[in-house]
Amino acid sequence: MRIATYNVNGINARLPIVQRWLQETAPDVVCLQELKAPQEKFPLEAIEAAGYGALWHGQKSWNGVAILLKGGTPEETQRGLPGDDADEQSRYIEALIRGVRIGCLYLPNGNPAPGPKYDYKLSWIKRFQKYAAGLLKSGGPTVLCGDYNIIPTEKDAYRPERWVDDALFRPEVRAAYQEWLDAGWIDALRTLHPDETIYTFWDYFRGAFTRNAGLRIDHFLLSPDLKTRLKGAGVDRFVRGWEKSSDHGPVWIELKETGK
């Protein structure tokens, strides 16, 4: 089973890109972030024409997450991150697919830091830590993927010294990421590619993509019981090079089916 995550930076603006990518790579499950579309403006008809069913959690102008399933409709298990009833930002959705719980998340950016947006990021992380701990305790294969807006280590950034004061690289958020790993979550890309230069985001400015001046901020965290099923992981870097593409590239993993 191939699972992909992709921050599309506007689902309707990038729809031709998404359609082309789905046709060329045909992942089984797709998690999308930053839809930038209200619930009623999600392009379901176009997604279904590409062979996918969908569930989505939209928001006008900002945020938004979705899960697509090739040849079927995902079974929703959670919409929104628990812990704050006043939080109206659409940043989490979850489904059960082929016995695997898949959470799609768009963690807040948090800039400028310090400030209210950074405070919100930290509070969201705390809620997510609590929820993720509950998922581990309840058991069952689980994938938590999406745009984490966290640069875990210096090797995950081109010229990391430039990011020292950024909300994506501040000590608190890097420590939170490490806490997930210490709790047992597996960083899929680093498990299979521990020393490689891997980026998932390249800014639109200063020729960042052509210089490969990127960041690794889109991640797959897997529950420990999926480690033996992990057989592949990578980035569809070529998609970032397409005209009018998102500033992120799709990231993917491949899991062995049970019994194989």
UniProtKB/TrEMBL annotation:
Endonuclease/exonuclease/phosphatase domain: residues covered: 4-248
UniProt superkingdom: Bacteria
PROSITE patterns from the UniProt entry: AP_NUCLEASE_F1_1, AP_NUCLEASE_F1_3, AP_NUCLEASE_F1_4
InterPro entries named among the record's database cross-references: AP_endonuc_1 (IPR004808), AP_endonuclease_F1_BS (IPR020847), AP_endonuclease_F1_CS (IPR020848), Endo/exonu/phosph_ase_sf (IPR036691), Endo/exonuclease/phosphatase (IPR005135), ExoIII-like (IPR037493)
Keywords associated with the record: Hydrolase, Magnesium, Metal-binding
Short name of one Pfam family: Exo_endo_phos
Cofactor(s) annotated in UniProt: Mg(2+); Mn(2+)
Family classification: Belongs to the DNA repair enzymes AP/ExoA family.
UniProt name for this protein: Exodeoxyribonuclease III
Species of provenance: Flaviaesturariibacter amylovorans
